[in-house]
UniProtKB/TrEMBL annotation:
InterPro entries: LysR_HTH_N, LysR_subst-bd, WH-like_DNA-bd_sf, WH_DNA-bd_sf
Family, per entry: Belongs to the LysR transcriptional regulatory family.
Residue ranges annotated for the HTH lysR-type domain, each copy included: 2-59
Protein known as: DNA-binding transcriptional regulator, LysR family
PROSITE patterns: HTH_LYSR
Coiled coil segments of this chain: none
Taxonomic source organism: Nocardiopsis flavescens
Origin superkingdom: Bacteria
Keywords attached to this entry: DNA-binding, Transcription, Transcription regulation
Listed PANTHER family: HCA OPERON TRANSCRIPTIONAL ACTIVATOR HCAR, TRANSCRIPTIONAL DUAL REGULATOR HCAR-RELATED
Pfam family, one: HTH_1
């Protein structure tokens, strides 16, 4: 197999078309350069240069080989730099999972920050509910998640990326839509309720029942996605408790009301990553994200 030294010698001779000048350019003497070219031609199996005492000319095979030799040398020169940048986390691939609700502004801001500070990172996105993200992070299919707690702190690192209000989504024609806010919990007694699934939307279910006296006999639908809840509200099926980012959905026929007595910004969205992650990009992204 030919060596990179042989390729460099060939390229120098091909560009100078003179063994003496090529040897001087390479800071070597002419005899070892001539031996390099001969060995290279034996390895390739064809004549690359026609030479006599006065002239050096590339053969047709030599012309074609020159282009490939330059390409191989360029790749070899770039490889250490690429490896260093990947090791430092400034280049590479980041696979991000996100919930549908987190895409309403939050995801875009994260992507913009990564693009601005780490422009050579390739980002792959996958919309998943939190439990699917956890499984994908565990299996190595994802590097970073935007999801809702709880998480196994021994397996995953996490930190709060975004906080927001919990609002009441009300059909526009409902009397509560015209009520001067904020609404009181008593205003919601006997109002049909579209509720989060305790299995597929566990975080929101646990949050709502911990903050409000929910009458389960009023629950008319149980769903897992915020968008689905808002569409059902627009259809007049009931009210729903949604994160403030849902206002960005632009669904017609829905009014969003604040609710009295709730903590400020109780809805949390976390960045989530495997503690055993070996992807240097994860570390760099966590450095630029909000703390």
């Amino acid at each position: 197999m030919f060596s990179f030294d042989q390729l460099r010698g060939f390229v120098a001779v091909a560009e100078e078309l003179h063994f003496g000048r090529a040897a001087e350019r390479l800071s070597m003497t002419q005899p070892p350069l001539s031996r390099q070219i001969q060995k290279l031609e034996r390895e390739v199996g064809v004549l690359l240069l026609e030479r006599d005492r006065r002239h050096v000319v590339l053969t047709a095979a030599g012309e074609a080989f020159l282009a490939e030799a330059r390409r191989l040398l360029a790749l070899a020169e770039r490889a250490p730099d690429l490896a260093q940048r990947i090791s430092a986390g400034s280049s590479g691939t980041l696979r991000i999972g996100f919930t549908a609700a987190s895409s309403y502004g939050v995801l875009g801001r994260l992507l913009n920050a990564v693009e601005e500070q780490l422009p050579e990172i390739d980002i792959e996105l996958a919309e998943m509910v939190t439990r699917e993200q956890v499984a994908a992070l565990s299996s190595g299919e994802l590097d970073l998640g935007l999801g809702r707690p709880p998480f196994d702190s021994e397996v995953f690192g996490s930190r709060i990326h975004h906080r927001e209000q919990l609002l009441v989504a009300v059909p526009r024609e409902h009397p509560l839509a015209a009520r001067p806010g904020p609404l009181r919990p008593d205003d919601l007694i006997d109002v049909p309720l579209i509720m989060h699934s305790p299995i597929k939307a566990r975080y929101f279910y646990d949050l709502v029942v911990s903050l409000l006296p929910i009458s389960h006999q009023n629950v008319v639908h149980t769903v897992s996605q915020v968008l689905t809840m808002v569409w059902l509200v627009a259809a007049g099926r009931g009210i729903a408790f949604v994160p403030a980012s849902a206002t960005g959905l632009g669904v017609e026929g829905v009014v969003y009301q604040a609710l009295e007595g709730l903590p400020e910004n109780p809805v949390e969205l976390h960045l989530l990553w495997p503690r055993a992650s070996r992807n240097p990009v994860v570390r760099r992204v966590l450095e630029i994200g909000p703390r």
